[in-house]
Design brief:
The structure is a homotrimer of 208-residue chains. By secondary structure, chain A is an all-alpha fold. Chain A has eight helices and no strands. Helix content of chain A is 74%, strand content 0%. Chains in contact: A-B, A-C, B-C. Chains A, B, C: It is a multi-pass membrane protein.
């Protein structure tokens, strides 16, 4: 319980920062910052909790995550102009939040006792859904569509590594979580820094 | 119970009109009008009911809201050409539906006995989500992204005023509801008519 | 029970193919194909199960649909370049998956014992939502917005015909299902091949 809550809070904080940065790119007012921070911060975990029928949803049980997201939004509203490139910050913070959220999804799904395939999907869904909603609502190109970048792939690999760790190292929550964050963030960072990628599909006429 | 149902019906009716107007802007057929009317009309309340685990969702318990939305769609299909500016009607009807839906979200959340922060979020989510789905699916710029307009801010202020009213005036459902609609619609209308707004974020390079 | 499961599997398979084709149009890597295949394949049924509070959601109870969607994505990744026009395949496969999914939605809603209006809406929602999520996330124009094509209309007619069949022919699951698929796919195919359509709304200034 302790670990999944900690993960939820950490991903809420970092995703909220990315939501607020997306709001800054859309030049919204401070309540718009709070809106996007909350949407991004709790989007993935909310989907996970609805799908697993966890009642109540984590931020309804305890509204602290909303307060965290709100505080993050206010901080970004007054400091974003200090950043060299807001897009770069957004992408790197998203990578961190993403890695943590995948681990949170995996941890909660394992606790819920669902099958292995579903644990993988919950990891990926929890990691990607908040950022996806942020990008769709903010009219940005969703990160899942970026060609030649590892994104869903990183989440998938991290969730899979986490399951292997749980089986072969220790089923306790700490190891699988550390491995998941390490692998997901590592692959995403390698993709951003060194262009690591999987071959993409290339049809003859690209979009016919 | 009486008041929340009445609010749900009223917001369904007015949101359905805005959904049908969005369909008219996309030049769909009459079933497309019905689709957008239903999507917009029940979107926010459905999200609220799923999040609060209200079972069944309000329009599954009683399908009358769907019939109301359908009737509204048919009426708009045959009368929209009479309007001077459909966009203007859409925006003003949206403002009304929005104010009512925020009040409905607050009322239901208060009945469910969740914490104050969650009541605020439910108000905002119920108010914005239907219109957000309408705009995302119809490929329009979501109203939440309109710069220099009060939208989420109006919902937030209305929900907060409603909670203050419940504490200091009377906890009965009528007062908080009236206050919420008045504040939300008033701020939104003031924003549309007189350009009331909060300062927006201005970075140096607007979208770098 | 047997029939709704079969329908869920069939629509998962065919929708997964359309999701993978959308991924090919966006030139993603193989995990991107799997992501879009799963999103499209289980989107509509997931919404239906959440709304009807079916616990657990069909692909959480048994992860086979996810394996089916994944396999479909891998097959498309290695064979899509063989197709003459991927867009044409996408549209026709979507028509098939769509017809099956409407029938699945109607069957599950009838089993759940909800009212007639809600059965209709569940049919339409189950049929359209997976493709809608695919198109919104992939930045394609949603099929529901295509002017002069029967889409939601076909789903609506199929669901209605299915209910009539259940009342006047036989309430057993097979007849209503066959009728629903036949009518939905027939109308959609007629629209694609022969331009069948309902009159669309025409305002004076098309988008003012």
């Amino acid at each position: 319980m302790g670990i999944t809550l900690t993960l939820d809070y950490a991903s809420v904080l970092v995703f909220a920062l990315t939501g607020a940065l997306a709001a800054s790119r859309a030049q919204l007012d401070i309540v718009g910052f709070i809106f996007f921070a909350c949407l991004t911060a709790v989007g993935g975990g909310t989907l996970r909790d609805l799908l697993l029928d966890r009642d109540p949803v984590f931020w309804i049980a305890d509204a602290t995550p909303l307060a965290v997201a709100m505080a993050a939004a206010v901080v970004v509203f007054f400091t974003a102009h200090l950043m060299e490139s807001r897009l770069k910050w957004l992408i790197w913070l998203d990578a961190g939040a993403f890695a943590i959220a995948v681990a949170a999804g995996v941890a909660v799904a394992r606790e819920a006792g669902v099958s292995t395939g579903v644990v993988l999907v919950m990891g990926v869904a929890t990691g990607t859904f908040g950022g996806l909603m942020r990008d769709v609502v903010a009219n940005e190109v969703p990160l899942v569509l970026k060609q030649g970048e590892l994104y869903v792939t990183a989440a998938f690999a991290g969730a899979a590594a986490s399951l292997l760790g749980a089986r072969f190292l220790s089923p306790e929550a700490a190891w699988p979580t550390v491995i998941c964050i390490f692998v997901t963030f590592g692959l995403r960072a390698g993709s951003l820094l060194f262009g690591w990628s999987l071959p993409v599909y290339k049809g003859r006429p690209p979009r016919a």
